[in-house]
Amino acid sequence: MSITRRAIGAGLAAAALAPLSRHAAAAQPPATAQAPAYFRYRVGDMQVTAINDGMAYRSLDGFVPNAPPGALQQAMADNFLPADRFPVTFTTLVVNTGGKLVLIDTGNGDLGAPTSGTWMTNFRAAGFDPANVDVLLFSHFHGDHINGARLKDGTARFPQAEIMVPAAEWDFWTSDDKRASAPDRLKGTFDNVRRVFGPVAANVTRYDWDKEVLPGITSIRADGHTPGHTCFALVSGTGKLMVMSDTTNNTQIFARNPDWSAVFDQDADTARATRRRMLDLAATERMQVSFYHAPFPATGHIVRAGNGYDLVPLMWTPAT
């Protein structure tokens, strides 16, 4: 039996007109929350756990300043995304290297949007304890990446952990001169960096690009989004993972349109060049990738697609 568009339309119309009373006596009401969101996979001998921190919505107005008129709206429709707002998801990584438990970024903490801030619940559900974290490894200093390290009341969430940050990022955001000359829209980021790192500034470890910052983890220059924005190459045995951080925002939009710039990109021209370089590297090397803002669990492989790229999601498996 063939199904026609007319038949589908008729079925939808009938469903819309059907009385709701037959559902009123359901034995169990609809659930109001998702299950804890974490996902484990292997990179050689390392175990990586993606920890979701919910999501937030941004207005489409001005979100992609260099997109041709109407192009962003069309891309949103083509990818079955909302017509009136841009969804931004947040996914950090916990890396068990075998010798250390490493967090790559820490989420929004208790300063996120109403639909984010679920990180600690998911972290604990995955079996982790903040007291056991050895290293906080930061990619850059936007609030959604660092606020989870210190609550708004000043409490440090991982008091035993070593803090490692990109030297170029530190030098920019802790500079009084840079803050004084920055546009008003960036001054809040300067102040937030001082809030999070100020109490421990003397003990923060600054790392350079293109160095093995921890065994099996190498920092990769990826500036443009911010002055010190960093990606990480995880290599163990035959396993390779490129942690893309914020090289793209939503991959459905920015990997497929790599020359578009999000409003968050501080140096748009450099960010675009970095995006193409990193996506092309991942496609050429056939490396697994992880993104901070891709749909959860935010990992897979990059393939070339026309003038852009696509993320091929990693297939879910019940065991790592």
User: How is the biggest beta sheet arranged?
Assistant: 7 strands, mixed
What structural class do you assign from the helix and strand content?
Answer: alpha/beta
What is the annotated CATH architecture? 4-Layer Sandwich
Mean pLDDT: 93
H-E order: HEEHEEHEHEHHHEEEEEHHEEE
Q: Strand content of the residues, in percent?
A: 25-35%
Extract low-pLDDT stretches: none
Helix % is 25-40%
Radius of gyration: 21 Å
Based on DSSP secondary structure assignment, what is the total number of beta strands? 14
What is the third-level CATH name, the topology? Metallo-beta-lactamase, Chain A
Tags for this model:
alpha/beta, 320 residues, seven-stranded mixed sheet, Metallo-beta-lactamase, Chain A, single chain
In short:
The chain has 320 residues and is α/β, with parallel strands linked by helices.
How would you describe this structure to a colleague?
By secondary structure, this protein is an alpha/beta fold. The protein has one domain (35-313): 4-Layer Sandwich (Metallo-beta-lactamase, Chain A), CATH 3.60.15.10. It has 9 helices and 14 strands. It has a 7-stranded mixed β-sheet with strand order 1-2-3-4-5-6-7. Strands 8-9-10-11-12-13-14 form a 7-stranded mixed β-sheet. It starts with a helix and ends in a 7-residue tail after the last strand.
Secondary structure elements and their pairing?
Blueprint: H1 5-17, E1 38-43, E2 46-59, H2 71-78, E3 85-96, E4 101-104, H3 119-125, E5 135-137, H4 143-146, E6 162-166, H5 167-173, H6 176-181, H7 184-197, E7 205-207, E8 212-214, E9 217-221, E10 230-236, E11 239-243, H8 251-254, H9 268-285, E12 288-290, E13 299-305, E14 308-313
Parallel strand pairs: 4-5, 5-6, 6-7, 11-12
Antiparallel strand pairs: 1-2, 2-3, 3-4, 8-9, 9-10, 10-11, 12-13, 13-14
